[in-house]
Design goal:
Strand order of the largest sheet of chain B: 3-2-1-4-7-5-8
Order of helices and strands of chain A: HHHH
Number of strands of chain B: 9
Helix content of chain A: over 70%
Distance between the termini of chain A: 70 Å
Number of helices of chain A: 4
Number of strands of chain A: 0
Largest interface: A-B, 15 and 20 residues
Distance between the termini of chain B: 37 Å
Shape of chain A: elongated
Oligomer: heterodimer
Order of helices and strands of chain B: EHEHEHEHEEHEHHEEH
Chain lengths: ~110, ~220
């Protein structure tokens, strides 16, 4: 096992511990808990399987290592998540405006 | 007699909104003057009310576009036949309202936009606005299919039918371009008239212009 993998596992363990602490204190609901649990377990699995993924990436024709491909994918996913978050926020903003407008007119 | 409603979005305008309402009431005694206080930190609401306006208040600041929508909905509920969007800071002059409404009454247009750039207009625009921000705004509007001389006309008058058809979504400053675009897309008969604009403050800056473009582009994903 490489030292980088060991560090990766430590990071995953840290976030799993935080997730469990949040669940115990009731800060995350059941669905969200399982979503993030699956996410961090998947990250752990990817770290454990770096070598086979390296081989797979090579067979797919990429001239880079698995860790780079995963980093690129991670960035793409983050951008998408950011976009989704912004869309959701825009929807919330619109809903707030609707309520504010309604209150302004009805309170007259 | 057809009711005229003048809608004024206001945010922290206690110094000027009183005079604006008085002047409007003096020139358009029968008009419904609606001031929508967008959660000001000062006494805008009380001053507007004391001056004789119908004052509505947003409990949370939502922006000029939202305040105009609130006022427009209220005016339509009250049965207004002609609606005018006006500013609270005294930059527009009440006399321009009669000319705009006359165009509507004569059936020549469904919506009239005020322009600072037509012959006969009087506007003391700062040079950066006149020669940089406005040409860029005009260029961007052309891409949206808007063919008007003033890309950010805050003064507009429209008929009840036009108001019911114009559904703008933008809460903040991008509503100007959005209303112009919606007017063309809805196939409304659009006219521009020269108006007088007296600047007391700089108003929209270049950074604000970029925010407007960003809001419009992002708005296309969230409708």
């Amino acid at each position: 096992m490489y030292i980088q993998q060991l560090l990766g596992f430590l990071v995953v363990l840290f976030f799993l511990a935080r997730l469990i602490a949040h669940k115990r204190s009731g800060q995350v609901n059941r669905e969200e808990f399982y979503l993030w649990l699956v996410f961090w377990l998947a990250v752990g699995a990817v770290i454990a399987l770096l070598k086979p993924i390296d081989t797979l990436v090579g067979r797919l024709g990429f001239s880079t290592s698995a860790i780079n491909i995963l980093a690129y994918l991670g960035i793409a996913v983050l951008f998408y998540a950011l976009f989704r978050l912004r869309v959701r926020m825009a929807k919330l903003e619109k809903d707030i405006t609707k309520v504010v407008e309604e209150v302004a007119i009805r309170k007259k | 007699m057809n009711m005229l409603a003048i809608i004024i979005p206001a945010y922290n305008e206690e110094q000027r909104v009183g005079n604006v309402v008085h002047e409007l009431k003096r020139q358009h005694a029968d008009a419904l003057v609606v001031v929508v206080d967008d959660c000001s930190r000062d006494r805008t609401y009380d001053v507007a009310r004391a001056a004789g306006a119908t004052a509505l208040r947003h409990v949370v600041n939502r922006g000029q576009g939202a305040a105009l929508r609130t006022g427009t909905c209220y005016a339509l509920e009250r049965g207004a036949e002609y609606l005018v969007h006006f500013d609270a800071d005294g930059q527009f002059v009440a006399a321009d309202i009669s000319r705009a409404v006359a165009v509507l009454e004569q059936g020549e247009a469904d919506i009239v936009f005020g322009s600072r750039f037509l012959a006969g207009a009087r506007a003391n625009l700062p040079p950066v606005k006149r020669y940089v921000i406005m040409p860029l705004g005009r260029l961007f509007n052309r891409l949206l299919g808007i063919r008007l001389s003033d890309p950010q006309a805050g003064f507009r008058a429209f008929t009840r039918t036009a108001a019911e058809r114009l559904q703008w979504q933008q809460d903040r400053m991008a509503h100007c371009s959005e209303i112009q675009r919606a007017a063309f897309q809805a196939g409304l008969r659009v006219r521009e008239i020269p108006i007088t604009v007296i600047y007391h403050e700089y108003g929209q800056r270049l950074s604000g212009g970029f925010r407007i473009i960003s809001d419009i582009l992002f708005g296309t994903f969230t409708k």
